[in-house]
Design goal:
mainly beta, ten-stranded parallel beta sheet, 4 helices
Length: 691
């Protein structure tokens, strides 16, 4: 067990100009040292050191207590990938680490003959921060570039490549490009690329710090590698002038190129999965995957799902029901589809015979914070599935361009499986371009966690389209929620349901999601079950939250409702006046309730002693210049399914910038999930089939 009782203080790591030797490894007495370093977002990096005929280029992540990087001969031989678990750190910063290579080999193929380094001891001067100067300016959070080519535009002469993803960082072990070897790490949370560029003839290396400026839809990125950040806090190498701006294609940073886990056995083109998965595996698009009963993915296991793969949950499994795919805390999903080859999780019933609740759904359990007592919760509807922890940067993997449909299962009162359950999923995860379709209970449900998502579609959930609780501080930009009357639960269904914790309205951390560019369309003109209790945004149980540049329209009963005195105390000061802690800003409410003008509806749980009731809060939002809530016909309606998601020009507004809410958000000049007359980001990978 690691020694986690000590706090790793940066002051213990001081800049040293002398060569730091690896205790336990024979170093040449007069080996030359090429060394510099940086500190960014809790990571200490050694640019490079030549030790006993090998060049070391490492990053030590002090938050996850993991060392990652490269070891390769100075004669230009093939590099080796290093992953070390830090075992202990003493008062002088000296550390012991297990560099067995086991972590590397779980998700990546080890280099030929690579058996790891065993346990190594590193002196306190091995990892350094540069003395003098200020720390680098924190870059804004950006989505990751996942996948390798030549930043200079020249052809890649010889590629020695492998990679890993750890705690939100994508690493390229090494590539020979135009006479130089690049060894880089891209921290997707801070938006910074760090690493080394040095000639393959063994010449002096150069330290690289790049600020990522933008990331395109296919992962391509532009970065400022002028060296400004390097020279702010570190002395630059002699003659170092930086690289200027570079453009990197979407496949530059890779997770194990050619190194996916072995493919599942698929006799006759079909594979049946059941029980507990205890080893990493790949599910190829050429194989029909069937979930037979509840399938658990054990901690330490990665499931790679190739683009275009279909996974079917059996409605009538031979193993204990319901069929569901559950990733336990510490496991990883790597399901990265594409617009033209989405990954589909669906029912095993034939089209036309599919129904909500045919199977249980997809569950991701992470280790990010929640507000359950003690910080750990148990997943609804499942046995032995704890989630929650203290790592906001935890990664449950990648889920993108994926559709989850005809799922959800109500097991008992307040004990359900949702179409997609995000249980304490951390912001090291990548969740984007995901649709939930025609399910029992909720479409997306966040149980705590910090995950930063984009481009989510919740369509036709029986209960809530988006449901958040138990300390959720997640973020979302571009969310589209649309009700379908044919599936609504008779007990009520809402566009957004937001709670803190039903067992303690003031538990911490308080739910406080940040959402921008959201569209919620109700089904009030579809008939059918749409007469049930239906609210666009139901805010209760002590929650906070921010909803900017959004649209709530066509809900059956009301646009918004505030419940409970504890929630009123979060939203309003006595008087009332706004606290700013529970807000809709620069948003449109239109045509809600039977009259078309019921944009708010008071509730008995906010009594006369509450700081405000629903309509008082709504009126305060409307008066909140310069980014008030306003009422305007956007041309959206819920009379047909799925309807037109594009609003008219009344949705154009630049009263407030999403970036002021979250630096990782895009700036948009409109409210709602889609720009008037803009691109349809749902095209190709979504479906609105109802059976």
């Amino acid at each position: 067990m690691r020694d986690r009782s000590r706090a790793f203080a940066p002051s213990r790591i001081v800049r040293a100009c002398a060569l730091a030797f690896l205790a336990g490894l024979a170093a040449a007495p007069n080996a030359s040292a090429r060394e510099s370093g940086f500190q960014s977002e809790g990571a200490y990096a050694l640019v490079s050191k030549d030790i006993n005929g090998e060049r070391w280029a490492m990053t030590y992540d002090t938050q996850s207590e993991v060392i990652t990087g490269n070891v390769f001969p100075t004669d230009g031989g093939p590099p080796k990938f290093v992953v070390c678990d830090v075992l202990s750190v003493d008062a002088q910063g000296a550390l012991a680490a297990a560099c067995s290579g086991a972590d590397a080999c779980i998700s990546c193929p080890c280099s030929a003959g690579w058996a790891g380094l065993g346990t190594v001891n590193l002196p306190g001067s091995f990892f350094e921060i540069c003395g003098g100067g200020s720390q680098p300016t924190e870059a804004q959070e950006l989505p990751p570039a996942r996948v390798a080519a030549d930043p200079t535009g020249a052809a890649v002469a010889a590629a020695r490549e492998s990679g890993f993803q750890w705690k939100g960082a994508y690493d390229l072990v090494s590539k020979d490009v135009n006479g130089e070897r690049w060894a880089m790490t891209y921290d997707t949370e801070s938006g910074i690329i760090t690493g080394n560029v040095f000639p393959t003839d063994g010449g002096a290396p150069q330290f690289v710090v790049c600020d990522v400026l933008s990331v395109g839809a296919q992962g391509e990125l532009t970065a400022d590698c002028s060296g400004a950040n390097a020279c702010t806090s570190c002395p630059c190498n002699a003659g170092w002038t930086g690289l200027g701006n570079v453009s990197l294609p979407g496949d530059f940073f890779e997770t194990c190129d050619g190194g996916t886990p072995p493919a599942i056995d698929c006799p006759g083109g079909n594979a049946v999965v059941s029980g507990i998965l205890r080893s990493s595996q790949t599910w190829p698009a050429s194989c029909n995957i069937f979930l037979d009963g509840t399938v658990f993915v054990d901690a330490g296991v990665e499931i790679v799902v190739q683009p275009g793969t279909t996974i079917r949950g059996r409605k009538n499994p031979s193993n204990p029901p319901p069929s569901a795919l559950v990733f336990r805390r510490g496991s990883r999903i790597n399901a990265s589809g594409s617009p033209n080859a989405p990954i589909v999780f669906t029912s095993d019933q034939a089209p036309g015979s599919r129904a909500p609740g045919d199977w249980g759904g997809l569950v991701l359990n992470g280790a990010a914070p929640t507000n359950c007592p003690g910080g750990e919760c148990l997943a609804e509807g499942l046995s032995d599935s704890p989630f929650g922890g203290s790592d906001p940067n935890d990664s449950s993997g990648v889920l993108r361009y994926a559709r989850i449909e005809f799922a959800g299962r109500i097991l008992s009162t307040d004990n359900e499986l949702n179409v997609l359950s995000l249980n304490a999923v951390g912001r090291g995860s990548q969740i984007d371009h995901v649709q939930t379709l025609i399910g029992l209970d909720d479409g997306f449900e966040w149980f705590g966690g910090t995950v930063a998502a984009k481009y989510l579609v919740a369509a036709g959930a029986a209960d809530d389209q988006f449901d958040l609780q138990i300390g959720t501080t997640a973020t979302l930009q571009y969310g589209y929620a649309t009700q379908y009357a044919g599936t609504l639960d008779s007990a009520g269904s809402h566009g957004i349901e937001l709670d803190n914790n039903e067992n303690g309205f003031d538990f911490e951390p308080r739910s406080n999601p940040h959402f921008c560019n959201i569209t919620v369309i109700g089904c009030k003109d579809q008939g059918g079950n749409c007469s049930v209790d239906s609210t666009g945004a139901l805010l209760r149980r002590g929650t906070a939250g921010q909803f900017w540049k959004s649209i709530v329209t066509n809900m059956g009963n009301r646009g918004m409702q505030l419940r409970d005195n504890a929630t009123a105390a979060v939203a309003c000061n006595p008087g009332p006046s706004l606290t700013g802690n529970l807000m809709f800003r620069d948003s449109i409410f239109w045509n809600n309730g039977a009259s078309g003008s019921t944009n708010c509806g008071n509730h008995s749980t906010t009594g006369p002693d509450a700081n405000c009731n629903s309509c008082q809060l709504y009126d305060l939002w409307k008066a909140n210049s310069p980014a008030p809530v306003f009422e305007s016909d956007t041309g959206l309606n819920g009379s047909t399914w799925p309807g037109n998601p594009f609003p008219n020009g009344n949705a154009n507004s630049s009263a407030i910038d999403c970036k002021a809410l979250e630096p990782s958000f895009d700036s948009t000049g409109y409210v709602g999930a889609f720009a008037p007359g803009g691109a349809n980001w749902m095209e190709g990978w979504t479906s609105f089939a109802v059976d």
